[in-house]
Structures are given as structure tokens and as C-alpha cells.
Amino acid sequence: MSEDYRPDGHAGGPYAETEPGAATPVALPRLGFVGTLRWTWRQLTSMRVALMLLMLLAVVAVPGSVLPQRPQDPAAVARYLADNPGLAPWLDRLGFFDVYASVWFSAVYILLFVSLVGCIVPRTRVHLRAVRARPPRTPRRFDRFPARGSAVVDAAPEEVVGAARRSLTGSVGLLPRFRVDDAVEAGGARTVAAERGYLRESGNLLFHLALLGILVSVATGQMLHYRGQALVVEGRGFANAVTDYDTFEAGTAFDPRSLVPFTLTLDEFTAEFTTDAAASPRDFVADVTVTEPGAEESVTSIRVNHPLTVGGAKVYLMGNGYAPELTVHDAAGELAFAGTVPFVPEDAQYLSRGVVKVPDVSTGEQVGLVGYLLPTAEVTESGARSVYPQPFDPLLVLTVWSGDLGLDDGVPQNVYELETTEMTQVLEEDGTPTTILVGLGETVELPGGLGTLTWDGLPRFMAVDLRYDPALPWILAFSIAALVGLSVSLFTPRRRLWLRVTEQDGRTVVDGAALARGDDLGLDGELDRVMDAVRALDGR
């Protein structure tokens, strides 16, 4: 049969000579649609691609920690849009203000999930077959192996095989060191084949299964979780309902009916500070009464880093401050406002800022009071300041506004800010803002004949953060499993060992060899232990 040649004179190749001086290319088989799908699947389910997708997932999550996110802080997103009118609208269209619900983040997440499943399933099947298989048969020659040994003993071959078996099958904890199989070769020589290290692949599979479990747990937690913040004043309570939270955000699969309807009442809040000038905080304790459905009231406490677990959720103590109890009568003497107003601390001495919004009752004039609470006030010619966070000499320093508060516009307002667009500040004759100073228990006249203000009490408040995420225990469990699997995979050696036992001149000759996958400094020692067990037969 004649042979085809390429034009360069070498046999074979993509050219066949059909006519003298003419060469036509050989038609190579096309991959086709099914072949392309098969190639794509193999690439997607390779370990290399899985690692690349894992790194890509970490990269695409970065914008979620750099840019404000609409589910967590819609006000910050609105400010960013206003401050960056050129770039921000494009970022919004691309989903950068809700990264974890964006199409591109979900695509990477799903691809990583599919890649891990497609990688784990076939490897698991191969691993199970390998675990059930017998150790590889003994090679004919040992001279090419990195670890070799030999011994000559006065013992029967059966005794040598038994001693080798006992040395190889000794357990490490609950697991045997080697899987051992012995046989008789055609020439009558006895052989022992041993293998260990399949736990290495088991650890590798455990690591990837745990990683898959973490992905599923995180996704489940994002769908079912909820988180809310609330401010509770001493003597008052809080109910676990969406409408009772100051801020609330939840997953896409969250059902408000799943909230456990418990109540929490703040009985007393205790704050301790050092007595030096720094007034560093020593302890914050919130004594609360909790009532759960079908259970009696229970009295407990919440501390920083010691959350309360109730209704399947954890309640964290996030902040505290003062909420002055105020009463305002309008110019006609009608009660216009009565209640507590939280003042938010701004420094270590608990200098706190707050806003009092007084709707109109009979005069048609609405009043806004903006100012500061000084727990321990020190008033000098240069101004007033707080010198200690405890309320030893409390003082309110307020400025007064009158006009339309915008409460009837139907637009939500920040309770800690005063909308002054339709309001006028009360001024002195020289044009400076009118400032009123109010001590605890005092009643003062509001300037401009707007009414009176009485400071009745100074209860404290606590700010709590309630979090519910059913996936957290699973994430912890899978994280531990991943760490265990990775450790087993890294530190379990993969070794194979063989012995050939023959009789020569009335004595038993034992030849041994060992092989490891990769560099293994303990391989020679492993073989030496087996050979030492065989040599010990001479010293019985």
C-alpha cells in the first residue's frame, strides 16, 4: 500500500497528493454542536475553572463593600446618586447598588455551584471505585523505585508475610495504616502489596463538598434572613413586628408572618464609666423583660458582645444615650407635645444632638426645637460643653424654629433632622439665633410667644440590632468541615509498598520497594519499619 506524504516530504499529515504536483488538505472531523457542548461542560467542571470562578466571585463582591447598597442604606445611595450625576446612574443601571441581587453576581454564583457539582460527582464515583479496589499488583522489578530494601531471615515465607501484614495494618487512631493484599506468583514467590493515602482524596472531596455546602447555606440565608434596628426607651417596650422597627431589611423569601411575636421591655439601663478625665466606658447593661408566646415573662440582661437569643434571633446591644421627657404647651395653653425624644451622642462625653417637632394645636403655628443635651454641663463665657457622660448636671441648649414642619406632606422624614425649608428661625434683635437653656425639672417660655417647654425627666435609651439568619450554624459546620478536609488532603501521604518473599538455599529472602506520589521524606522510614518487623523474626 502506498503512503501519503506531505509536501515537505514527511509521511502523514493533513495533505494527500491526488495528482502529480497537487496537494489537497485532508478534511478534519468537525467538533459539532454536541461536541462543543461536551467540551464546554468539561472545561466548566474542571478544578482549574472552579478555582477561577471562586476568585471571580470574590472580585465581583468587592463593589458591595465599597459602594453603598440600597437594601442596607437607601439614603446613602440617594446621596451618592446626587453627588455623582454622571457616573452613578450608569452604576445603578448595572446593579452596583444592589450587588448581591445583580444578574452578573448571580451568574458567577450559579456557575461556581454548577462547576463544583460537576467536578465532585464524577470524582466521587472514581474515588469510591478506587477505595473498593485491591492494591496494585507487585511489579516484577524493584530497581526503578526510589525506596528499596532487602533482608534475609531464617523463617518460613508464611511467617514473613504475617509479620509484614501486622506491621502494615496497624491502625492510626481508628483507621488502618495500609490496605494489604498478598498473593503467590507463578514461580512460587509470595508477594505483599500495600497501599495507603486514599484518605487524602477523601479530604479533598470533603473540602469541595463543604465549599458547596457553604454556597448553598449563604444563598439560603440571604433568602430567609431578616435584620432590624430599634430604639427602646426605659420603661417602654418593643414588639417583634416589622412595623415596630426603625429600620428593617429581609431576604427575598422572607415571610413577615414567620416573625415570632415576642415583646421586649427595657426596665433599666446602667452605664459605668471611669472617673478620670477620659471617662472611658466600663460596662453597659440593659435589664429587660422578655415575653414569648406561650411562656411566662423572663427577666434577663443584654451586654455588649453578649447578645440575647429570643424568637430564634439574636438581639445585640449596639448603642445607648438619653431621651429627655418633654412637655410643650402652645401659646393658648393647649398641650401640643408630650413624650420622650432621643438625643444621639456625638462624643465620649455624651454631648448629644436631638430634634423636637411640635405640631400645631390651636394657634396654627408649628414649632421645631434643635439643639444639644449636655449630661454634665459646664457653661462659660465661650460657650457650654459636657465634661462627663453621666447626668450629674444636665442641660438642654436649644434653638427655636417656627413655620411648617412638613409633617402633612406625606413624605417620610428623618426624626433626627429638622426640615427648615418652610420654617423661620427665631432671632434676637441683633440677628443672632435665640438660644434657650433648660435644666432638668424646669419650665421655660419659648421666644416669640410660641408657648412653654417643660423638661420632666431624663430616661435612657438603648439601640438594639436584631438579626436572624438560619444559615449561620450550617455555615459554621461546613467551614469546620472544609478546614478538616483541607488539612487531611494536605497532610495525608499517598504511598504504595511491595514485598517479594522467595526461598534461596534454605533461607527466606525478602525484597521491598516503596513509591509515593510526589516528594515524601517519610517514604524510606515507612519501608524500614516493615523490613525491621521482618528482621525481628531472626531474634525470636
UniProtKB/TrEMBL annotation:
InterPro entries: Cyt_c_bgen_Ccs1/CcsB/ResB, ResB-like_domain. It is a multi-pass membrane protein. The chain crosses the membrane at residues 49-67, 99-121, 205-224, 471-491. One of its GO terms (cellular component) is membrane. The keyword Transmembrane helix applies. Residues 47-528 form the ResB-like domain. It is found in: Membrane. Residues 1-21 are annotated as: Disordered. GO terms for biological process: cytochrome complex assembly. Keywords: Cytochrome c-type biogenesis, Membrane, Transmembrane, Transmembrane helix. PANTHER family: CYTOCHROME C BIOGENESIS PROTEIN CCS1, CHLOROPLASTIC. This is Cytochrome c biogenesis protein ResB. The lineage of its organism: Bacteria, Bacillati, Actinomycetota, Actinomycetes, Micrococcales.
